[in-house]
Amino acid sequence: MKYQTPTGMRDLLDEDLKYFQKIEKTGQEILEFYGFRKIETPILEQSALFEKGTGESTDIVQKQMFCFQTKGGDALTLRPEATPSVVRAFLERGMESFSKPVKLWSFGPFFRYERPQAGRFRQFYQLNIDSIGSESWIIDAQIIQISYNILKNLGLSNLIIKINSIGDSQCRPYYKKALIEHLRRSQSSLCPDCKKRFKTNPLRIMDCKEEKCQTKIREGAPQILDHLCKECHLHFKNVLESLDELGLPYILDPYLVRGLDYYTKTVFEIFTEPKEQETSLALAAGGRYDNLVKTLGGKETPACGIALGVDRIASLLKKENKKYFCPSKIFLIQIGELAKRKSLKLLEDFRKEKIKLTEALCKDSLTLQLKIADKLKAKYVLILGQQEALEEKIIIRDMKTGNQKTVTISKAIKEMKKCAKK
After folding, report:
1. How confident is the model at residue 310, as a pLDDT?
2. Domain 14-171+228-319 bears CATH identifier 3.40.50.720
3. In Å, how far are 117, 127, 197, 215, 298 from 136, measured between CA atoms?
4. DSSP per position, 42-101
5. What is the pTM of this model?
6. What residue segments make up the domains of the chain, in order of their start?
């Protein structure tokens, strides 16, 4: 039997993995500056957590969760998103008593059963940012600012923020009523999913991805910005003015609602502006979720968060040929048993000095090792043959010019430090 990865999942190796590591490192550096603490939640959670937190009517719960029952009868789910898990940890670990806001970030894999396509996998990775405990509009602006800066620091350009407000429990019912009246006129022509949403959550019809359905829905549709209460209007106004102050590029998208039930007030996505014949994909998306903590059993606690799609970001970085890592400039060649033994000590000395050194200790041929060094584009090779090993010496060869010199092994690190600066 030939074993292979499950549909929609893949192995991460070498260059691909380097991009993932770079995204996490960049995020960590920026988030730690802003006082965010890392949290790691289990990959498996109780199914009820997502049914209650994400929303029973959402596509995630209805169609996409990987659910199973343990031998002990527990109903568990591979986490499809981060926010309910973070809120569960916030409540379970007593973070309600912490100084507010509680600022957390995480990085890891998530799972959704959906059709694999460009930039979308059944096992995917996210960098998640959450701020829990403050209702201030400044948190929304800061979450957007941090996410935008992470993407910029990775070298991405032509970023654009799409933003909207979907109001709260005070003003959304009025908009919902106006939207239902509008949708009734074209209810029969809605796609099957939207017909279901019409009964369960009409607002989510605005998030439909079917192009024909979108056109029909949005033609003459009421805009939620016209129905915001005074508090939501002021909150959103302050967020937009903050983005103006920061000089961040954004556009108002009155049809942006996000596909999860727990969002309130500000919702946002960050895209790259597509080139010709390209489809723009969201690199990050999130919003305010002021009711989720209470929904999951806590006190009424405002919160805001965002998820950055690591797979899409890595794919875009690779496509734009961004380089965050470089091969070692130095390659160690060894010939003979004594040279092999001395190479182990030499490698350890270079490691302690934080000088990257590449080798092929299992190879014996000088010619083969030189070919490997050339393939890796090494600038210098250190050649430790049997005679050199006996005399405690080593040859340093410049691969570009062919020039070489012999020095004592004890001086090899000093010499390579000079070469590394060239």
Report:
1. 96
2. no
3. 38, 23, 31, 35, 19
4. -SEEEHHHHHHHT-TTSHIIIII-EEEE-TT--EEEE-S-SHHHHHHHHHHTTGGGSSSS
5. 0.87
6. 14-171+228-319, 330-420
